[in-house]
Amino acid sequence: MASRRKQLHLAAHFPGVNNTTVWTDPQSRSQIDFSSFEALARSAEAATFDFFFLAEGLRLRESHGKIHDLDVVGRPESITVLNALAAVTDRLGLAATVNATFNEPYEIARRFATLDHLSGGRAAWNVVTTSDAFTGENFRRGGYLDHADRYTRAQEFVDATRTLWDSWDSDALVLDQQTGRVAEPGAGRFGHRGAQFEISGQFGVPRSPQGHPVIIQAGDSSAGRDFAARDADVIFTRHGTLQAGQEFYHDVKRRLSDFGRQRDDLKIMPGVTVVVADTDAEAEEKAAHIRRQQVSGATALHLAELLWGIDLSDRDPDGPLPAEDPVVGSAVVQGRVQHSKDPLATAKKWREAAEANGWSLRETVIAQQNRQSFIGSPQTVATALDEYVQADAADGYILVPHLTPGGLDDVFERVVPLLRERGVFRTEYDGATLREHLGLPTPAPGRVRTGAA
């Protein structure tokens, strides 16, 4: 008997801290008005997506002392937005990015547990970290955290929040006919003592319908992969080819057993862009137009500055790449992560590609943006999404639109029906909680996690 095909997991991303969105397109709507968040969330739920994903930064980035032209000024705080979306959706998971460096476990545990109750068990926390002193200036501690200590704090942060969530047993609320629900004595009592946190008290939010909010983590380093294998339910990553995706997938899945976990306990969902048109040729032309919109001359210079670490504001984006070598450790663009681990080698690679293809600086930057993309007719895109998942390059994808809130409409309306025809995507929600959508186990109260501090 043939084995059952893997089911795809899909999520909708609402960007706000990157250069994906084309702000100048006539179809682009507000990035801060609630109607935009609601429109994308409602469409994603109608398409039975697993969850709606909000990115967030803690400080507006700057370039040459001015606010970066790709950042959203006035963006509402993510959990507040999701609490409002909980009232206008019924099944869609609601995921917020919240920093583990500049927050405290009690407050984050309380906020996500509240969202989980208000939504009926649909909350998710995308755990991020930072060692950026520029961002740290917004907080009392400043930029105190060494880069190497980010995951040390984050792991203990997650342990502490889980201690709080586990402080209520699922039956700690008993129904009294006259007074309503009353807590059993001792419900919510907690204590955590570690190198990063020493806290104790009583947690005021009862255990939620899915036990714990879903934990999402993004990271590609060895430490980040171990963090995901130990603590995450979903890992959000990016890989430009099928082979790179398969290598990452197998490496992270292999690490799960080191922490006493099963292969299906962690879902790998890369962030991807999708461009759909009537034919493959039209889609390729549309994708090229979108990339030119996304990477203007000014944007190309910003992104090149991130690699070179020098002021390129007086350079011609349609001219050649800088002849200088990158300055390692520079921070010309404040509040932006330098993704290249070896700027000198990356600059060499860019120069070789530019020379071989006759590319300008802007054309090189466009070509080197390596987010995985699925481009083609609805049939081509549906086939590719399915084949990548069946080939163990992913368990599903977080789709990143170039327009909000309507940038994924072609996927919702033209691709999803084809995935359903292939028998690899649900036609309706089978459960009520996000853990049920993702096929994840519900954690038992007070469980012992292998590898926990």
From TrEMBL:
Query: What is the E.C. number?
Result: 1.14.-.-
Q: Which UniProt keywords apply?
A: Flavoprotein, FMN, Monooxygenase, Oxidoreductase
Under InterPro entries, the record lists: Diverse_substr_monoxygenases, Luciferase-like_dom, Luciferase-like_sf, NTA_MOA
Alphabetized Pfam families for the sequence: Bac_luciferase
Q: Name one GO molecular function term.
A: oxidoreductase activity, acting on paired donors, with incorporation or reduction of molecular oxygen
**Which parts of the sequence belong to the Luciferase-like domain?**
29-391
Q: Which residues bind FMN?
A: 97, 147, 151, 221
Q: Which family does it belong to?
A: Belongs to the NtaA/SnaA/DszA monooxygenase family.
Protein name, per record: NtaA/DmoA family FMN-dependent monooxygenase
